[in-house]
Write a structure and sequence with these properties.
Among the domains are: about 80 residues, 2-Layer Sandwich (Phosphorylase Kinase, domain 1); about 180 residues, Transferase(Phosphotransferase) domain 1 (Transferase(Phosphotransferase), domain 1, Orthogonal Bundle); about 290 residues, no CATH class. It is built from 18 helices and 16 strands.
């Protein structure tokens, strides 16, 4: 279904982290860019899957679309939208120039629209740069090379704390040691400003520095600016000043920047259509070898040397991109084509030995002027070229140089290589006769029906290979750091997962412990209540049985007492009868009736009183028994209530102790996890610092090796220059003697011999001077390398110290928060204790009275 159109490594598409193929759908014929990524582990594949899901959610006209993804043969294939215009950085290298301001305006407008869309979906791009801005055939841009699909780094959600690409914002650099203060969407705005500078100047700010020193520049220096602000509009400069605000709080958002005058007036993408058409146009190349012409000029250059001292004639000087500003900073005057007339008026009298010379091939936006240099030099020395610190030379420094004095009158033209030593103020004209060629390119393309022809000239030399090698080495160093960063992200994610699992397990264990304790005490309470109920019921049954038995016993006793009482009444009746029988017979009958009536009434009264007393005694006994039973039940209930309340207090005390223990344990776990986090940060920081020191060591070694090679070349060229110059000076001296002939031939031979000896001394002094200068250069370079190493070490020490301080502050803050939380918890504990009543309160309420 998919046909591969180009192989890995072909110039169509390639990245530093994976290879990209141009593919075509066999059914529809649609083109796509196929990113092929080798995944070494499931975790890495899972990372890419997450980012593919994020990429699939993005649907915007200025963001590359995900067409599909599949895993085959151990490789992850991600099919994304194909942009035939290529990346902006590749376009600038192809055209060998930066973009124009209208082109930058259109790109900036469309990038802001894409960023506004991403930020509205809570996504941070994190890797904005010219290489990630792709051009379509219709003159639009697409944000591509998303970190998730290009390097294994994710499109970050808000509050990300990871380091992204080269144009980092200051807060991104700071989050290396302060993970809890992550950056947000505003980091993309900073990267946008850096990317615009890169588009204007081909290279981003501080591109010539080691990546470690760039981080130092970002953190401590002012925001970068354009190298030549006067070339750009005030609106562009104001836009960069607004976007490159070191304070993320005051830095505007993408929506606010869309209202800036620099981009708000953009209505057409014609500038980008012209750019794409020019980059994709057919190129007619013509290489002109300047070797012969320069050799022809040797005689005229030599003829300008007088006997009083050498006068350097008008040598062609070509200023490569960026040297103009450095020359101006060094105090040299530059005259461009429009200023030639004024310059000529100022210098009406021609200087001796000066002449005009046309350069080989024309360059756009540059002109070929004359270089007149006069110097009063007693012995006439020619110094080897001095190095230009931090500059990228476009040609070999294989020519002589003339030391500039305060009385020197200088006009520099744009036709040959020139090198400047800032410390000594000397100017070195680079002799590229053996190596330089002029590449003339003509491009013809059609935009909106109008045919446009653009011709550019470029002087090529072997140093371009060195530039490309340095660019490759810088990218390699960035890639090494990104691989370390990727591994750090993975380790951080694993540690976070481990900590999350530990916390979840601890919370589950806490919940289980709390549930077990509560269940235990709830069961004890239920058992206690059940036992109490059973005991009360048994006591009530026992009391009821006891009452019945006691009532039965009392009734039996009362019945016996009642029988005895009746016997006593019978005895009393007998006594009454006996008393009556003792009376005379006449009185017996009347008294018997009266006595018996009285006795009957008395008997009835006594019997009623006796029965009433028995009933009262029975009731009193029953009441006493009932009261005793109630007292026993109340005592039992009080005892059970005390046990229940004690159990409840034990339950609450156990829960409180468990809560306190759990909070202490949780605090210790969080504290240990925080220590683990900082331990990992220190470990990763030390690994990164080791890599940085290794890269700095390689960088310093390269600088020393390049200096040694350049000095060896200068040392090898000096004898040749001295021989040529010696012949010229000797010829001029002989010509001078011939013109001003005085004395005999032997005297002239003696003068020539003395001149030759003087020349030999001068050349020996030049060689000694060169050796001393080389030693000084080597010492300066070694000192610079040592300074770079010390500066890096200082920065690393500051980062480590800052990380330790931050860890101490976080641990202290964590302990303070825990202590405050425990204090609040204990304050809330007092009302909870009041809820449980003392053991006597409910016992008093359930006293003997019920």
């Amino acid at each position: 279904m998919v046909q591969v159109l180009c192989a890995p490594g072909s110039p169509c598409l390639c990245t530093h982290a994976s290879f990209v193929l141009q593919a075509k759908n066999k059914e529809t014929g649609a083109l796509a860019a196929a990113k092929v990524i080798e995944t070494k582990s499931e975790d890495e594949l899972e990372d890419y899957m997450v980012e593919i899901e994020i990429l699939a959610t993005c649907n915007h006209r200025h963001i590359v679309k995900l067409l599909g993804a599949f895993y085959w043969d151990g490789k992850l294939w991600i099919m994304i939208e194909f942009c035939p215009g290529g990346a902006v950085d590749a376009t600038m290298l192809e055209l060998d120039r930066g973009l124009t301001e209208p082109q930058i305006q259109v790109i900036c407008r469309q990038m802001l629209e894409a960023l506004h869309y991403l930020h509205s979906k809570k996504i941070i791009h994190r890797d904005l740069k010219a290489g990630n801005v792709l051009l379509t055939q219709d003159g639009d841009i697409k944000l591509g090379e998303l970190p998730g699909t290009g390097t294994g780094q994710a499109l970050a959600r808000p509050s990300s704390s990871s380091l992204g690409g080269r144009p980092m914002a200051p807060e991104v650099v700071m989050c290396e040691t302060m993970k809890d203060t992550p950056y947000d969407y505003k980091a993309d705005i900073w990267s946008l400003g850096i990317t615009l500078i890169e588009m204007a100047q081909i290279e981003p700010p501080h591109h010539e520095l080691n990546p470690m020193r760039v981080l130092l520049k970002i953190a401590k220096s002012d925001p970068p600016t354009l190298s030549c602000p006067s070339k750009w509009s005030l609106e562009f400069r104001d836009f960069l000043k607004t976007a490159l605000d070191k304070n993320p709080e005051t830095r505007p958002s993408a929506a606010q920047l869309l209202e800036h005058p620099f981009v708000s007036k953009v209505t057409s993408n014609r500038a980008l259509r012209e750019l794409v058409a020019e980059a994709k146009a057919e190129v007619m190349e013509e290489i002109e070898d300047s070797r012969d012409e320069v050799e022809d000029d040797d005689s005229s250059e030599s003829a300008s040397v007088s006997a009083l001292g050498p006068v350097l004639a008008s040598l062609p000087v070509h200023l490569w991109r960026g040297e103009r500003a450095r020359l101006q900073k060094a105090g040299l005057q530059l005259f461009w084509p429009g200023q030639l007339g004024n310059s000529a008026e100022r210098d009406k009298q021609p200087r001796p030995g000066s002449k005009e010379r046309k350069s080989i091939g024309e360059r756009p936006e540059s002109s070929h002027l004359e270089n007149f240099m006069e110097e009063k030099l007693a012995n006439g020395s020619l110094d080897p070229p001095a190095p230009f610190p931090g500059s990228r030379s476009k040609g070999d420094s294989d020519s002589g140089s003339t030391s500039a004095s305060e009385s020197m009158d200088l006009t520099i033209s744009l036709s040959a290589d020139l090198s400047l030593n800032r410390e000594s103020g000397s100017i070195s004209l680079k002799d590229s006769r053996m190596h330089k060629k002029t590449l003339k390119r003509t491009r013809k393309f059609v935009v909106d029906g109008v045919e446009v022809s653009v011709t550019t000239s470029k002087i090529i030399s072997e140093d371009e290979k060195k530039d490309e090698e340095m660019r490759f080495l810088r990218r390699q160093e960035l890639r090494e750091l990104r691989l370390l960063q990727k591994e750090e992200h993975r380790n951080q994610a694993q540690l976070n997962s481990k900590h999350q699992l530990q916390l979840e397990q601890m919370l589950r264990r806490f919940e289980q412990e709390m549930t077990t304790k509560k269940k235990f005490y709830d069961t004890e309470l239920e058992n206690l209540e059940r036992q109490q109920k059973q005991q009360i019921e048994k006591m009530e049954q026992d009391h009821s049985l006891r009452r019945r038995e006691e009532a039965k016993r009392i009734r039996l006793e009362q019945e016996r007492d009642h029988v005895k009482f009746l016997e006593q009444l019978k005895q009393m009746k007998k006594e009454v009868k006996n008393e009556v029988e003792k009376l005379p017979r006449q009185q017996r009958k009347g008294n018997m009736k009266v006595k018996m009536d009285d006795f009957a009434q008395k008997k009835q009264t006594m019997e009623q009183e006796f029965l009433a007393k028995q009933k009262e005694d029975l009731e009193l006994a029953m009441k006493n028994i009932t009261a005793q039973n109630k007292k026993e039940i109340c005592d039992k209930e009080r005892e059970c209530l005390n046990k229940k309340q004690q159990l409840m207090r034990d339950r609450e005390a156990c829960i409180w102790d468990l809560e306190e223990h759990q909070q202490q344990e949780k605090h210790q776990l969080v504290k240990q996890q925080l220590k683990d986090q900082y331990f990992l940060q220190r470990h990763e920081l030390l690994r990164k610092h080791e890599k940085e020191r290794e890269q700095m060591q390689r960088y310093n070694q390269r600088m020393l090796e390049q200096l040694k090679i350049r000095q060896q070349q200068e040392k090898a060229r000096l004898p040749k220059i001295q021989r040529s110059e010696g012949k010229t000076r000797m010829a001029m001296y002989k010509k001078s003697l011939h013109i001003h002939s005085s004395g005999s031939a032997s005297e002239q031979r003696e003068k020539i011999k003395q001149f030759a000896q003087q020349e030999e001394k001068r050349q020996k002094a030049e060689r000694l001077h060169q050796q001393q200068k080389h030693e000084t250069q080597m010492k300066d370079m070694q000192a610079q390398c040592e300074s770079n190493t010390n500066e890096l070490q200082q920065l690393q020490n500051e980062k480590c110290h800052l990380l330790i301080e931050h860890e101490t502050q976080k641990l202290k803050s964590l302990d303070e928060n825990h202590n405050q939380h425990m204090k609040e918890w204990r304050d809330k504990l007092r009302p909870r204790k009041k809820v449980v009543p003392p053991p006597c309160e409910q016992g008093v309420l359930l006293g003997p009275g019920g």
